[in-house]
Amino acid sequence: MIRLTEIQAVMVGVLLAAVLVVGLALLFVGTRRLRMGTALIGENARQQAFLDSSPALVMIVRSDSRVDSSPTLGLWLGLVDQPATIDDLATADAGLDEDDFRIFSDAVTAARRAGAPFRLSLRVKRGARSLLAVGQRAPDRLNAPGGVLIWMFDASELQSRAARLGEEAEELRAAFTSLTALIEAAPMPMWYRNRELRLAMVNTAYVHAVDAANHAQVIDQQIELIEGSGMGGPLANAAIARDTGHPQTAAVPAIIKGERRMLRIHDLPLFDGGAAGFAVDIEELEQARGGLKRFADAQRAMLDRLSAGVAQFAADRSLIFCNQPFRRMFAMRPEWLADRPEFDRVLERMRESSRLPEVRDFPGWKAERREWFHAQSPEIEESWHLPGGIHLRVVAQPLPEGGLLIIFEDRTEQVQLASARDTLLRVRTAMFDNLFESLGVFASDGRLQLWNEKFRRVWDFDEDLLARHPRIDALVKAGEARLSDPRQTALISELVRSATVERKQRGGRIAFTDGRHFELTAVPLPDGNALFTMLDISDSKRIEQALRDRNEALETADRVKSAFVANMSYELRTPLTSIKGFTEMLHGGYAGQLSAAGTGYAEAILQSVTRLSTLIDDVLDLTEGDEEIPREPVDLEHIAGAAAETLAPIAAERGVVLALDVHGSAGTVRGDPRRIRQAIEHLLRFSINGLGPGGRLLLHVDGDADSARIIVSDDGPGMSQEAANHAFDRFASSAIVGPGSDPALGLGLPLAKRFVEAHGGTVTMLSQPGEGMLMTIGLPRG
C-alpha cells in the first residue's frame, strides 16, 4: 500500500481543491449561459410571434442575389416554390409584373450599391393583389453584408380603398366646384361666417351689393351687407342659428346701389360651428303686397260705387264684405252685418225682407244655393223675380282661395227699357218704310242688317236676296246691271267699308241706266254698324247742269268782253299817240306861236291825253291774264321813297301833307319792283283823292323775318266797312272811289290787289265814316 507523504497529500488536496473550484466556476458559467439561452429562445419566440402577426413580410436580398423571406411571400406572389433568388420573384406565369419587377430589381440594386431607400407599389400577375415594398440597406446586425432589407405590405385592400376614396374625393371636389360656381353665380348676396361670426367667404353679388372692389376687401374690412350690424343687429340671427342649430329668417331694410331695398336675410347653421347666409331682395314683393292691398282697398271702394249689390263670403261661408247697394237692396243693417253672418242666415234675412223669389221648398232651395261654394262651373247666373215686379240678375263666382262672390244686379229698369225698345223698333221700322230716302244698315262685317222698302224698290232686289242678309260685295254685284257705269260698284263697297271699318263718314254720287242720279252717304253708327243712304237728286242734277251751262256761257261772255276791252284799249292807243304828238307840236310852236289861251288849251289836251293813257293802261292791266312776275331783290325803302316822291306833287297840289316813315326792319323782298311801286302809288292816289286841303297821309314800312308790311293811313272822311269790303273789286262804283274824285281812279285799288297777290301777298282796308282809312300790304320775304 502506497503511503503518501505529507507534502504529496497537501499537493493532492490543493489539486482537488483547484479542481473543485474550477468545476464550481464552470457550473456557475454553464448555469448562467443556460439562463441566457433560455431568455434568448423566449425573446426569439416573442420576436417571431411579432413577425408572424405583423401585416408586413420581411425579405432580405443578399449581395449574391439570394433571398431570405417568409413562406407567406410565395403565397402572395402566387409561386409554387419558395423564391431562392431575386430572379425567382417573377416567373412566366406568376410572381411580380414584368415592368414592376424591372423597377423593383433596379431599386434593389441602387439600395445595395448607394444605400438609396425606396418605396414601390408592385402588382402581382395572378389575381388583383397589390404589394407595397419599402426597402433600405440591411443593417450590420442582420449579418447580411451588402444586402437589402425589404418590407412587403399587402396593399390590395388599401389600394382598393384608396381608389374608392379617390373617386369619392373627385366627386366631392366636382360637387364642391359646382357648388362654389353656383354660389358665385347666384344673383343674390351669399356669405359664410366662421365660429366667431366673422365673414370668411362672400360671392360676387355680395361684393357688388356693398360696392366693394373685390372679395378680399370685404373679408379684410368685414364689410357687412346691413348697416349697423352688431350682436344686437342682424348678426343676432346668425348667432341664434349657430347656437340653436335652427335656421333664422328676418326682413330688414338695406341700401343697395344707392336705393333703399327690403331684404329677407336667411341664416343657416353649419356642422363646423359657422353659419351661412343669403339675402333675397323682396322689395318688389313688398311693393306687390302693398299694391295688392291698395288694389283690394280700391276694389272695395269701387264696388261701393257700383249700382249692383256685391257680397263676398269666406271659405267658412261667413260674410266678409258687402257694398252699400247690397245693404240698400236687401235692407241690411250695418250692426247686424258687423257680426259676419253665415250664408244661410243672410238668405233667411233676405227672405224676411221679401227679397227672395217665392219658393215652396225653401230649405231645399237654400241647400242648392249653398252648393255654389263648391261648384265646378266658373260662373253661375240666375234671374230672380221678386214681389213688386222687381227683376234681379244674380251672378255667383266661386273664388280660387275658397269662398264665393255674388253680384246682384237690379234689372227692373232694363226689362222695362227692353219693352220700350221693342216698341221703338216697331216705330223705327214703320218710319224707315215711309222715308223718301233709300236706307240700308250694314254690320261691321259688311252684311246688310236692315233696309226699307224704298231701298228694295230702287235696286229692284228680291225679298229672298235681302232676307239672306248678303254682304255688300254680293249686293252690289246683284245691282250692277242698273248702274250706268259698272265701275261705280267699287265706290259703294268703299263707302260701306270706310264707315264700318275706318269709322269715317263719306259720300259720293252714282247714275243709273234709266237716267236717275243718286247721292250716296255712309255714316258710322254708335253701335259699330253703318247707315247707308241713297237720295234721288235727278231733279237737282238737271238744275245743276243748267246752271253749269249758264255759267260756262257767262265765262265765255266774260272772256269775249275782256278780249274786246283789250282790243279797244290797244286801238285807242294809236289815235291818242297822234293827238299827243300833234298837241305837243302845237304847244312847242312848230305851227306858229300860240296865244296864251291856245297854250292853255294845248296843255289841257295833254293832261287829258295823259289821264286817258293812264286809264287805258289800268284797263289793260285788269283785263290781261296772269303774267309771270320776275323775282329779284326789291329794296322796300327805295321803292317806298320813289312812290312817295312821285305822288308828292299831287299831294301838295291838293294841300295834303304826305309823310314817309321807313323802319330799318323793312329790308328787301323778292319780286317785281315796278309792280310793287305801282301798288303803293295806287294806294297813295286813292288816299290823296279822298283828302281835302289840310289832310294828312302817312306811308309806313316795316317788317320781320318772315314778311314785310306797307301801311297807308290817312285822317280823311273814311267810308263804311261795307264799302271798304268792296273797294278792291274791279270797276268799283264812284261811291267807293270817294266824293268829288275822278271815277277813273276806281281802277287803282283792284290793280294794287292784283299786283300784291301776284307776289303771294295780301292787301286789306279798315275804315269807319269820319275815322279815316288804314290800308295794309303784306309781302312775304321768299
List keywords for this structure.
single chain, 782 residues, Beta-Lactamase, 6 domains, 24 helices
Write the layout of secondary structure elements.
Layout: H1 6-53, E1 56-61, E2 67-69, H2 71-77, H3 98-114, E3 118-123, E4 130-137, E5 148-154, H4 156-185, E6 190-193, E7 199-202, H5 204-209, H6 215-221, H7 235-244, E8 248-256, E9 259-269, E10 275-281, H8 283-305, E11 309-313, E12 319-322, H9 324-330, H10 334-337, H11 343-352, H12 362-370, E13 380-386, E14 390-398, E15 404-410, H13 412-433, E16 438-442, E17 448-451, H14 453-459, H15 463-467, H16 472-478, H17 489-500, E18 506-511, E19 517-524, E20 530-536, H18 538-587, H19 596-623, E21 632-635, H20 636-653, E22 657-662, E23 668-671, H21 673-690, E24 696-703, E25 707-714, H22 721-725, H23 734-737, H24 748-758, E26 762-767, E27 773-780
Parallel strand pairs: 22-24
Antiparallel strand pairs: 1-2, 1-5, 3-4, 4-5, 6-7, 6-10, 8-9, 9-10, 11-12, 11-15, 13-14, 14-15, 16-17, 16-20, 18-19, 19-20, 21-23, 24-25, 25-27, 26-27
Helix pairs in contact: 16-17, 18-19, 20-21, 21-24
Question: What features would you describe in this structure?
Answer:
The chain is α+β, with helices and mostly antiparallel strands and 782 residues long. The chain has 6 domains: 23-50; 54-154, PAS domain (Beta-Lactamase, 2-Layer Sandwich); 186-281, PAS domain (Beta-Lactamase); 288-410, Beta-Lactamase, CATH 3.30.450.20; 417-536, PAS domain (Beta-Lactamase, 2-Layer Sandwich); 627-780, Histidine kinase-like ATPase, C-terminal domain (Heat Shock Protein 90), CATH 3.30.565.10. The chain has 24 helices and 27 strands. It has a 5-stranded antiparallel β-sheet, sandwiched between helices. β8 (248-256) and β9 (259-269) form a beta hairpin. α16 packs antiparallel against α17 and α20 (636-653) packs parallel to α21 (673-690). The longest helix has 50 residues, at 538-587. It is elongated. It starts with 5 loop residues before the first helix and ends with a strand. 20% of the residues are buried. Residues 733-745 have low confidence and may be disordered. GO terms for molecular function: phosphorelay sensor kinase activity. The chain crosses the membrane at residues 7-29.
